[in-house]
Amino acid sequence: MHTGVLLGTLLLLMVIGYFMGRSRATAVAHAGGTRLHSITGYYGFYVALWCGLPALAIVAVWSIAQPWIADWALMSSLPAQAEALAPEKLVFLVNDLKAYATGLKPADQIPAEMLPAVERYQSVQQIAGVALWVVVGAAAIAGLAYARRHISPQLRARNQVERVANLIMVAASGIAILVTFGIVLSLLFEAIRFFGKVPITEFLFGLQWSPQTALREDQVGSTGAFGAIPLFAGTLLITFIAMCVAVPIGLLSAIYLSEYAGPKLRAFAKPALEVLAGVPTVVYGFFAALTIAPWIRNTGESIGLEVSSESGLAAGLVMGMMIIPFVSSLSDDVINAVPQSLRDGAYGLGATKSETIKQVIIPAALPGIVGGVLLAVSRAIGETMIVVMAAGLAANLTANPLEAVTTVTVQIVTLLVGDQEFDSAKTLAAFALGLTLFVVTLSLNLVALHVVRKYREKYD
Amino acid sequence: MTDAILPRTEAGADSTAKRLARRHAAERRFQIYGRLAILTAVLMLGTLLGSIVLQGTPAFFQSEMRLEVDFAPDVIDPKGALDPADLRRADYQLLITKALYAQFPDVTGRKDKRALKQLASSDAGFTLRKMVLADPSLVGTTQSVWVKTNDDADQYIKHGDRNAKVEEGGRLSPAQVDWLKALEAKGDIEERFNTTFFTAGDSREPEQAGILGALVGSALTLIVTLAISFPLAVMAAVYLEEFAPKNKWTDMIEVNINNLAAVPSIVFGLLGLAVFLNVFGMPRSAPVVGGLVLALMTLPTIIIAARAALKSVPPSIRQAALGMGASPLQVVLHHVLPLAMPGILTGTIIGMAQALGETAPLIMIGMVAFIADVPGGFTDPATVLPVQIFIWADAPERAFLAKTSAAIMVLVAFLIVMNALAVVLRKRFERRW
User: Fold this and answer.
1) Backbone dihedral angles phi then psi of residue A229, each to the nearest 5 degrees
2) Partner B, chain A 158-217, Cβ-Cβ below 8 Å
3) For B402, how many CA atoms within 13 A lie in the half-sphere containing its CB?
4) What is the pLDDT of residues B245-290, one digit of tens each?
5) Is the whole model's pTM more than 0.90, yes or no?
6) ipTM of the complex as predicted
7) How far apart are CA B348 and CA B344, in angstroms?
8) Which of B40, B259, B270 sits opposite A249 (nearest CB)?
């Protein structure tokens, strides 16, 4: 909130700067009797930018540096016996003291020997808070005054403002790269720490998944098993079921809608498919867990089959349902991209509509359709909520869709929900799974985009 | 190849006719497959929405019972001073209990009395407290008050004759069922619109649980998402579409944006957990972190939509402006961007609708905690509507099943409004050049 007020004040100063710059520019032009280089507004922006940008940079640096300095102040005034503590206990102590200092814990319970450290921490924080206001205020006003004095009819305000605007836009488009790097680095960093505890070969090829960590050293089964093959198998099983539902239905409905359907049916069915695409995944998850799974179980039991209440079938069916609109809209695009001349040629040879579709259009559109299906597969692999709610937690290595299976995403969620320490193999395993997921979906997407693009070049 | 042409014999014509019939049959079959596919998809949608509306509608209503409550001064105001502080602290639930005992004077056993007491919601006392605080002159009078029943009784009243298992009482004892029937026969039980559902935060008791906390959390999160992703996306799209030179750097940005759009949402959650929470030390469960994560997630969607919108503005507009002496930035800001704005806004609304329905990344950053209070700011612990649905779907009480479906109905209603807005915007401002 404190920074919010600061930023608000800064914004106000920038607005003031804008108007000051504008009126100053007019005055300068009048006094000199010459024409300005740029429109007056640009002089306003020029002053506002000089006022705001340096001050903002200071705020950014400050907000990174201040916690470091405050921590250093706290650590340096800890009593001697605290310094002898083990590192992890020291972290506890420091967090505790910070809680006292910020008023999260009542201040009258501070142990006497810790009091100087807490007070030092508080005073550093307080001084830093005040100093930030002073420094930022001074920088803003100095920038404002400097820019205002600088205004002259010859000043190329527009060029300078536009250069800054251009830089800001470049930075904004660089965010995408930054995010990708952030994802890769954070996943890679934690995953490497995980592979330091569990060998990568065991993770990729092990057949046992039971990510418990021991509470006591001598506990039975204390060493967790981190073989991810059952998770991969479960993910593939559910994805396969989903594709068995989504590909035929999605493809056939796309073909029917683009080749056969009249405008009335299209006006009704297209929005219906779009609604199916817009339903949040948590809703599908709820539907799978509370409507489809019990239904499958009852049906299965009535014909004498043993069905788990968290069967992979239920999750797969509903996931397929979710992916139908995805498949159909992608295939719709590629089918429409097939040139009319191919159809006309087939009709001219006397082919029926379905023969044209089966023997001309689908072969011509096949690369696009394959690309679309690959994208759909990557979507199914990364889908989380449906499987979290409807698939099981037990890592069974099975190909039977009626049994409970678990998936990569389910395990990520289970491992990371609730209390966590950031060093245990259990938490780090989630990041290793995340990395695997990221790499697999990324490769699928790249392949799919490549296939689609290569095909498009043919008819454009 | 003239000898390849067969003479038209009777037998040949016959086989041609046969083959034609076969081909037409195949044509009809293929059409039927297509129709079946669409029918299946529509049926699935119908089942999904139908089952949720069917399960969810009861949650918008709550059974209440009429009790003759004696606002006895010795319970709520023993000092007789009508001091608001005393009135606030008093045990109003006791009044409810007494009123129930008075309603059924023949209930005497201790066990029976406790069972009787349970029929009223443990929230019922608050209703009385609100009444007394609003009008202290009620103390000492007897009023007939409608109070909520507890969730088991509520379930019985709503589904009693439909579900055989509940017919036997479900979680209610036979005596409790008799009491409810007696109340019902006197017309002292009614189903009323459940305002608590829209005015309360989460609760462990189904009859007291509402979605306001989740709604406010969703609103706060979306505000952060919009404030971050919209300006960034527009700037990035303008740069890439209007200014960027064709080189490796911009190619790389483009590939990155396309790939980010297809990264599973849970990976963004992992990013938020590892970077925002663990490296930057931001608070867990806070809308500001949720908003940040969702902003990164929706960024590619909005950039792609904004670029398409910018691309659809014809070059003649740009050339005309340039010819009038506008600088490249002026061309974009004064002419191209305003003309592309409807398209950009449509894309933004669709991105926001996606963000509103997103669950998995928010679970990763701890927005899945049980939070009873309505969040008051961007750093307060909060949850969002889809996560609330996820939490309730796991709850063991039967009544939460209906609550979950009702919350889904609210969520879907919001999504429909947002998407309809996008469609209207597109229809109204779409321009064909």
Assistant:
1) -55, -45
2) 158, 162, 165-166, 168-170, 172-177, 179-180, 182-183, 186-187, 189-190
3) 20
4) 888 888 888 888 888 888 999 999 999 988 888 888 788 888 999 9
5) no
6) 0.86
7) 6
8) B40
